[in-house]
Fold each of these.
Amino acid sequence: MNTQSYLQISANLAAVNQRVETAAQRAGRDPAEIRLLPVTKFVPEERLRELARLGYLEMGENRVQEMQRKAEHLADLDVSWILIGKLQRNKARVTAQVATEIHSLDSLRLANTLNRHLEALDRTMPVLLQVNTSGEETKSGFSPAEALAAYEEIRALPHLDIRGLMTMARPSEDSEVVRASFTQLRELRDRLSPTDLPELSMGMSGDMEIAIEEGATIIRVGSAIFGARPTT
Ligand SMILES: *Cc1c(COP(=O)(O)O)cnc(C)c1O
C-alpha cells in the first residue's frame, strides 16, 4: 500500500461525501438515500485495494475487459463490479459472470442476449436502462420515447431485474442544460413507474449536486476521488 495515495483517496472521499451531504440538505433529502458509486476505470489495482480498505467495495467500470482483469487480480477481496459503460453483445457472457449490476443496458437485443446467459448461470441481474437525455449522437442509450416500449419488453425477461434508469448529462457550463437531462430522466421514470423503478443513476464529479437536487439515488464519481484520468 502507498500511504500517500491512500490518504489522498481518503481525503477526496471525505470531500465528496461532504458535497453529497450539503446538496442533500439543500434539497431537503436524507443523504443516506444517495449511494456513492466510485468509478474506477483507468485506476490501477493497487489504488483499488486502498479504496477497498476504506470500506468501498463497489466499483464502477466502463469496459468489460478491464473489469474482468481487475476482478481476477482482486479476487481475494469481496468487490461488486458494476458495469456503467457500453456493452457489446459479444461480451455479454463474461459480463453475466463477472458483474453484479449493469447501469448501461441500452438495447433490446442486448437485453435478450444477457437474459439468455443469465439463465444458463441461474442468476438474475439488477439492471438500469440507460437513457440518452442529451440528444447527443455520441451517447448511448434509449431515446426517452424508445425507453417506454423497451421497458415493457425487458420487464418480461425473467433474469433481468430493472431497478431504474441511468443517464449522462450533456457536458455544459450552463447548469440549466445539465439539469434538463436529470429532470427529464426523473420525469420519464415517473411516467414508467415510480414504485417499480426506485433508482436514478445520474450525476458525476462535475454535476453531482444538480443530480442530487433532481432526485439521484446513485451518483457515479471517478475523478473527484482518484484525480484526473489520463487523456489519451
Ligand atoms: C467515467 C464515468 C463516470 C465518472 O466520471 P467523473 O467525471 O470522473 O466523475 C460516470 N459515469 C460514466 C458512465 C462514466 O463513464
Note: The beta strands are 35-38, 58-61, 80-83, 101-105, 125-130, 160-166, 199-201, 218-221.
Amino acid sequence: MSSKDPLLSKKHRNKRKYSTDDVETGEVGSYEDEDDGEYGTLFKIIPYLSTFLIGMGTLYFFTVFLPEYFIPESTDLVGIPHISELDVILKPITSTRALDLKSGKNVDLDENENDDDDDGDDDTPSKAVERLILIGDIHGHYTQFRKLLSTINYNKKNDHLIVLGDFITKGSDSFKVLEYLIANEIDCILGNHEYYVLQNYATFHRLEEPHFTGNRTQFSIKEDFNSDADYLLAKKLEPHHVQYINQCSVIKKLGDVPVHKPKNNGSPYSAPGIAVHAGIRWDLPLDEQDPIDNLEMRSLLGPYFNETTPDPEEEDAISWSKIYNLKQKEKDDNDEPTMVVYYGHDARRGLNLKQYTKGLDSGCDKGDQLSAILIWKEIHTSKKGKKHILFKEEAVSVNC
Ligand SMILES: *[C@@H]1O[C@H](CO)[C@@H](O)[C@H](O)[C@H]1NC(C)=O
Ligand SMILES: *[C@@H]1O[C@H](CO)[C@@H](O)[C@H](O)[C@H]1NC(C)=O
C-alpha cells in the first residue's frame, strides 16, 4: 500500500494507534479529544473509501481474474505438416475374417492375436492392421460418429482410422469428438474449419499465424477466415486439443489402395492412395500443391483447369474430381502411374465414389448421412490352390 497517499497513511496510523495498549486501558477517548477534526473527516471518508476499494476489487474480479480463470492457457502453434506418410500396413485377411470384422462376430480382441497373424515379416512398420477406415466430415456430430463406429465395428486394435477433416465446428459436440479422437489416438487430416479454428486461436491468444511445413517454397495465408462460431470454439480450446489439431496433416499418403470401377467389388489392381480434405490439382505434384487449395477447393476453372475455386457455381467451374478422373484415365491408358484420392468437404455432391476419387462428405451436418469407407486386402485361393490378393473397399453410411 502506498505510503505516499496521505489518506491511506492516516488510516494506517489510525489503525496502529487503536491497536496499542491504550485501547486496553480504555483511554480511546483521549484520541478524539486530541485530534477530533482530523479523525472526524477520516471517519466520514472511510465508507466511501471502502466502497471504492470493494468496487475496484469487484471490477478486477469480474473483468480480469474471472475471464483469465476460465480462459485455458495457450500453447504455441507449430508448423502444420503439408504431406505426411501413413506408417501402417494392411495385413491380408480372408473374406470370412472381413465379414467377422464388420459384424463384430468371432473377433478375438486378445492382445496376442495381432502377433500370431503376422506374415513373418520381421521388419514390419510400427503398426499392422486389418482395415484402413476413412470417415468424412463429422462436424461435431458426436452421437452419429459413435453410431457409425459401432455400425462398422471399429476396433482400435484391428483398424487404423483416419478422419478426413472438418471433424469439429457447426455441430454441438465438437469437444466430445475431439476428446474421443485424442483418447483413441485416431489419425486425422486437417480440414478448412480446423485451419480457421487454429487461425482464430492464434488471433485470440496473440500467437503467430499458423503456418505449413513442407517442400513448397511459398505458402499462401488466407485472410478472410473470421466466423464467430469458429472464434467461440477457438477460445475454449485447451492445449491438448490444439496440439492434436495442429499435428493433422493436409495430405497423407496411404500406401496401396484398390483401383476399380465403382460397381466392381474389389480389384486385383492397386495404386497409391492419398487422403486430403478438399482435393488436389491434377496438374501438380503433391509437394507443389497449395495447402489452402487442398483445404478449400471444390472445382477447377476452365479453360485450362489449372485454377481452383471453392465455389462450384462459379462460371466455367467443373468439379475437380471429374477432371481428375479424366486425367487419371489418360495416364492409365499411357501406362503412367495413377493415384487415388479420398476426400470430404463437398457435402453438396454427397457420397461420390468414382474410380480415382472417393468423396466421403455425405452431409451429416445437413441432416443427411455420415459415411466411412473400409479398405482391406483379401486373400483368395484359386481352384488350383494359388493364392492371390484382392484389394477391397466398402462404403458404409448412417443417418444423421
Ligand atoms: C523434399 O525434397 C527433397 C529433395 O528434393 C526430397 O528428398 C524429399 O522427399 C521432399 N520431401 C517432401 C515432403 O516432399
Ligand atoms: C494456366 O495455364 C495457362 C495456359 O498454359 C497459363 O497461361 C496460366 O498462367 C496458368 N494459370 C495458372 C494459375 O497456373
Note: The chain has a mean pLDDT of 86.
